[in-house]
What does this fold into?
Amino acid sequence: GRIEWVNESYSRLTGRRLAEVSQQPLTALLAGTDSDPTAVDRIGAALFEREPVTIDVVQLAAGDRRFYVHLDVQPVVNDEGLVENFIAIETDITARVETEQSLRRAKSDADDASRAKSEFLASMSHEIRTPMNGVIGMTSLLLETELTAEQRDYVSTIRTSGDSLLSIINEILDFSKIESGRMEMENQPFELAQCIEEAVDLFALQAAAKDIELAFHIESSVPRVVLGDITRLRQVLVNLMN
It folds into this structure.
Protein backbone atom coordinates (compact mmCIF):
# COMPACT_ATOMS: atom_id res chain seq x y z
CA GLY A 1 0.00 0.00 0.00
CA ARG A 2 3.01 2.34 -0.12
CA ILE A 3 3.93 4.31 -3.23
CA GLU A 4 6.93 2.94 -5.17
CA TRP A 5 6.70 4.94 -8.38
CA VAL A 6 4.69 7.76 -10.00
CA ASN A 7 4.67 9.05 -13.55
CA GLU A 8 5.10 12.60 -14.85
CA SER A 9 1.35 13.20 -15.13
CA TYR A 10 0.93 12.47 -11.40
CA SER A 11 3.74 14.87 -10.53
CA ARG A 12 2.34 17.56 -12.83
CA LEU A 13 -1.17 17.30 -11.36
CA THR A 14 -0.21 17.02 -7.69
CA GLY A 15 2.95 19.14 -7.71
CA ARG A 16 4.79 16.31 -5.94
CA ARG A 17 7.82 14.48 -7.31
CA LEU A 18 8.61 10.81 -6.72
CA ALA A 19 11.16 11.64 -4.01
CA GLU A 20 8.46 13.37 -1.95
CA VAL A 21 5.90 10.59 -2.06
CA SER A 22 8.08 7.47 -2.25
CA GLN A 23 7.21 4.96 0.51
CA GLN A 24 4.27 7.04 1.71
CA PRO A 25 0.98 5.15 2.09
CA LEU A 26 -1.31 5.75 -0.85
CA THR A 27 -4.21 6.46 1.53
CA ALA A 28 -2.24 9.22 3.31
CA LEU A 29 -2.48 11.38 0.19
CA LEU A 30 -6.21 10.86 -0.32
CA ALA A 31 -9.39 12.13 1.32
CA GLY A 32 -13.02 11.13 1.20
CA THR A 33 -15.60 13.06 -0.81
CA ASP A 34 -18.67 14.81 0.57
CA SER A 35 -20.86 12.06 -0.83
CA ASP A 36 -18.54 9.25 0.37
CA PRO A 37 -16.50 10.18 3.47
CA THR A 38 -15.55 6.50 3.98
CA ALA A 39 -13.80 6.20 0.59
CA VAL A 40 -10.25 6.19 2.04
CA ASP A 41 -11.14 3.48 4.59
CA ARG A 42 -12.57 1.36 1.80
CA ILE A 43 -9.37 1.75 -0.23
CA GLY A 44 -7.27 0.74 2.78
CA ALA A 45 -9.46 -2.31 3.38
CA ALA A 46 -9.13 -3.38 -0.28
CA LEU A 47 -5.33 -3.05 -0.14
CA PHE A 48 -5.22 -5.07 3.07
CA GLU A 49 -7.36 -7.82 1.51
CA ARG A 50 -5.30 -7.58 -1.72
CA GLU A 51 -8.44 -6.90 -3.73
CA PRO A 52 -9.13 -4.44 -6.57
CA VAL A 53 -11.04 -1.24 -5.85
CA THR A 54 -12.56 1.44 -8.08
CA ILE A 55 -13.79 4.59 -6.41
CA ASP A 56 -14.10 8.39 -6.60
CA VAL A 57 -11.88 10.17 -4.09
CA VAL A 58 -10.12 13.48 -3.38
CA GLN A 59 -6.39 13.71 -4.22
CA LEU A 60 -4.39 15.91 -1.83
CA ALA A 61 -1.87 17.97 -3.80
CA ALA A 62 0.96 20.37 -2.96
CA GLY A 63 0.06 23.82 -1.68
CA ASP A 64 -3.08 22.51 0.09
CA ARG A 65 -4.73 21.96 -3.31
CA ARG A 66 -7.41 19.29 -3.63
CA PHE A 67 -8.99 17.81 -6.73
CA TYR A 68 -11.34 14.95 -7.49
CA VAL A 69 -10.07 11.78 -9.12
CA HIS A 70 -11.52 8.48 -10.24
CA LEU A 71 -9.17 5.90 -8.73
CA ASP A 72 -8.77 2.41 -10.15
CA VAL A 73 -6.47 0.12 -8.13
CA GLN A 74 -5.68 -3.35 -9.49
CA PRO A 75 -3.46 -6.03 -7.89
CA VAL A 76 -0.49 -7.46 -9.81
CA VAL A 77 -0.19 -11.23 -9.34
CA ASN A 78 3.07 -13.19 -9.81
CA ASP A 79 3.53 -16.67 -11.27
CA GLU A 80 2.75 -18.25 -7.89
CA GLY A 81 -0.59 -16.44 -7.73
CA LEU A 82 0.53 -14.06 -5.00
CA VAL A 83 -0.12 -10.30 -5.07
CA GLU A 84 3.23 -8.55 -5.42
CA ASN A 85 2.01 -4.97 -5.69
CA PHE A 86 -0.74 -2.77 -7.13
CA ILE A 87 -1.12 -0.52 -10.12
CA ALA A 88 -3.20 2.61 -9.40
CA ILE A 89 -4.58 4.81 -12.16
CA GLU A 90 -6.07 8.21 -11.34
CA THR A 91 -8.29 10.17 -13.71
CA ASP A 92 -8.95 13.83 -12.93
CA ILE A 93 -12.75 14.29 -12.71
CA THR A 94 -12.78 17.69 -11.01
CA ALA A 95 -14.61 19.42 -13.88
CA ARG A 96 -17.35 16.78 -13.90
CA VAL A 97 -17.81 16.86 -10.12
CA GLU A 98 -17.94 20.67 -10.03
CA THR A 99 -20.54 20.63 -12.81
CA GLU A 100 -22.62 18.09 -10.87
CA GLN A 101 -22.33 20.18 -7.70
CA SER A 102 -23.36 23.29 -9.61
CA LEU A 103 -26.39 21.47 -11.03
CA ARG A 104 -27.36 20.20 -7.58
CA ARG A 105 -27.13 23.74 -6.18
CA ALA A 106 -29.20 25.07 -9.08
CA LYS A 107 -31.82 22.36 -8.50
CA SER A 108 -31.91 23.15 -4.79
CA ASP A 109 -32.37 26.85 -5.54
CA ALA A 110 -35.13 26.03 -8.02
CA ASP A 111 -36.86 23.78 -5.48
CA ASP A 112 -36.66 26.55 -2.87
CA ALA A 113 -38.14 29.03 -5.33
CA SER A 114 -40.91 26.58 -6.25
CA ARG A 115 -41.75 26.01 -2.58
CA ALA A 116 -41.82 29.76 -1.96
CA LYS A 117 -44.18 30.20 -4.93
CA SER A 118 -46.43 27.42 -3.67
CA GLU A 119 -46.51 28.82 -0.16
CA PHE A 120 -47.40 32.25 -1.58
CA LEU A 121 -50.19 30.73 -3.68
CA ALA A 122 -51.50 28.79 -0.69
CA SER A 123 -51.54 31.94 1.43
CA MET A 124 -53.14 34.12 -1.26
CA SER A 125 -55.72 31.48 -2.18
CA HIS A 126 -56.75 31.22 1.45
CA GLU A 127 -57.03 35.02 1.75
CA ILE A 128 -59.14 35.22 -1.41
CA ARG A 129 -61.38 32.31 -0.41
CA THR A 130 -62.47 33.96 2.85
CA PRO A 131 -64.19 37.02 1.25
CA MET A 132 -65.45 34.81 -1.58
CA ASN A 133 -67.34 32.69 0.93
CA GLY A 134 -68.86 35.92 2.23
CA VAL A 135 -70.03 36.92 -1.24
CA ILE A 136 -71.61 33.50 -1.81
CA GLY A 137 -73.22 33.53 1.62
CA MET A 138 -74.77 36.96 1.08
CA THR A 139 -76.12 36.00 -2.35
CA SER A 140 -77.68 32.87 -0.81
CA LEU A 141 -79.44 35.04 1.78
CA LEU A 142 -80.47 37.52 -0.91
CA LEU A 143 -82.05 34.72 -2.95
CA GLU A 144 -84.32 33.94 0.02
CA THR A 145 -85.81 37.45 -0.04
CA GLU A 146 -88.55 38.82 -2.29
CA LEU A 147 -87.00 39.64 -5.64
CA THR A 148 -88.29 40.37 -9.11
CA ALA A 149 -87.61 37.78 -11.77
CA GLU A 150 -84.91 39.99 -13.27
CA GLN A 151 -83.25 40.58 -9.90
CA ARG A 152 -83.34 36.86 -9.08
CA ASP A 153 -81.69 36.12 -12.43
CA TYR A 154 -78.90 38.60 -11.68
CA VAL A 155 -78.34 37.25 -8.17
CA SER A 156 -78.36 33.66 -9.44
CA THR A 157 -75.69 34.57 -11.97
CA ILE A 158 -73.58 36.12 -9.21
CA ARG A 159 -74.02 32.98 -7.11
CA THR A 160 -73.09 30.67 -9.97
CA SER A 161 -70.03 32.75 -10.86
CA GLY A 162 -69.03 32.86 -7.20
CA ASP A 163 -69.29 29.08 -6.89
CA SER A 164 -67.17 28.62 -10.02
CA LEU A 165 -64.54 31.06 -8.80
CA LEU A 166 -64.46 29.43 -5.37
CA SER A 167 -63.95 26.05 -7.03
CA ILE A 168 -60.97 27.40 -8.98
CA ILE A 169 -59.54 28.98 -5.82
CA ASN A 170 -59.87 25.68 -3.97
CA GLU A 171 -58.05 23.84 -6.76
CA ILE A 172 -55.20 26.37 -6.67
CA LEU A 173 -55.05 26.08 -2.89
CA ASP A 174 -54.93 22.29 -3.00
CA PHE A 175 -52.28 22.22 -5.73
CA SER A 176 -50.07 24.75 -3.94
CA LYS A 177 -50.42 22.83 -0.67
CA ILE A 178 -49.31 19.62 -2.37
CA GLU A 179 -46.30 21.37 -3.97
CA SER A 180 -45.23 22.97 -0.68
CA GLY A 181 -45.59 19.68 1.20
CA ARG A 182 -48.34 21.02 3.45
CA MET A 183 -51.26 18.96 2.16
CA GLU A 184 -53.32 17.57 5.04
CA MET A 185 -56.20 15.12 4.75
CA GLU A 186 -59.17 15.49 7.09
CA ASN A 187 -60.51 12.48 8.97
CA GLN A 188 -64.06 13.40 9.93
CA PRO A 189 -67.34 11.45 9.81
CA PHE A 190 -69.61 12.36 6.88
CA GLU A 191 -72.61 10.94 5.05
CA LEU A 192 -71.52 9.26 1.85
CA ALA A 193 -74.85 9.89 0.12
CA GLN A 194 -74.59 13.63 0.79
CA CYS A 195 -71.09 13.75 -0.71
CA ILE A 196 -72.16 11.89 -3.86
CA GLU A 197 -75.36 13.89 -4.26
CA GLU A 198 -73.50 17.20 -4.04
CA ALA A 199 -71.07 16.03 -6.73
CA VAL A 200 -73.89 14.82 -9.00
CA ASP A 201 -75.87 18.06 -8.55
CA LEU A 202 -72.99 20.05 -10.03
CA PHE A 203 -73.52 18.29 -13.38
CA ALA A 204 -77.30 17.96 -13.36
CA LEU A 205 -77.89 20.97 -15.61
CA GLN A 206 -75.08 20.05 -18.02
CA ALA A 207 -76.41 16.49 -18.27
CA ALA A 208 -79.98 17.63 -18.84
CA ALA A 209 -78.85 20.00 -21.60
CA LYS A 210 -77.39 16.98 -23.39
CA ASP A 211 -80.47 14.80 -22.75
CA ILE A 212 -78.47 12.64 -20.34
CA GLU A 213 -80.03 11.25 -17.19
CA LEU A 214 -77.53 11.40 -14.36
CA ALA A 215 -78.22 9.27 -11.29
CA PHE A 216 -76.35 7.37 -8.60
CA HIS A 217 -76.96 4.16 -6.69
CA ILE A 218 -75.33 3.10 -3.42
CA GLU A 219 -75.25 -0.60 -2.57
CA SER A 220 -76.93 -1.52 0.70
CA SER A 221 -73.67 -2.99 2.00
CA VAL A 222 -71.91 0.40 1.77
CA PRO A 223 -71.76 2.19 5.17
CA ARG A 224 -74.02 5.25 5.45
CA VAL A 225 -71.44 7.25 7.41
CA VAL A 226 -67.69 6.96 6.81
CA LEU A 227 -64.52 8.59 8.17
CA GLY A 228 -62.45 10.61 5.73
CA ASP A 229 -62.12 13.87 3.82
CA ILE A 230 -65.47 14.76 2.22
CA THR A 231 -63.97 17.64 0.22
CA ARG A 232 -61.24 15.50 -1.38
CA LEU A 233 -63.66 12.65 -2.15
CA ARG A 234 -66.11 15.12 -3.72
CA GLN A 235 -63.27 16.48 -5.89
CA VAL A 236 -62.40 12.96 -7.06
CA LEU A 237 -66.02 12.24 -7.96
CA VAL A 238 -66.37 15.59 -9.74
CA ASN A 239 -63.22 14.89 -11.80
CA LEU A 240 -64.49 11.43 -12.77
CA MET A 241 -67.95 12.66 -13.76
CA ASN A 242 -66.57 15.63 -15.62
Notes: Residues 154 and 177 are 34 Å apart (CA to CA). The chain is about 55% helix and 15% strand. Residues 94-143 form the longest helix (50 residues).
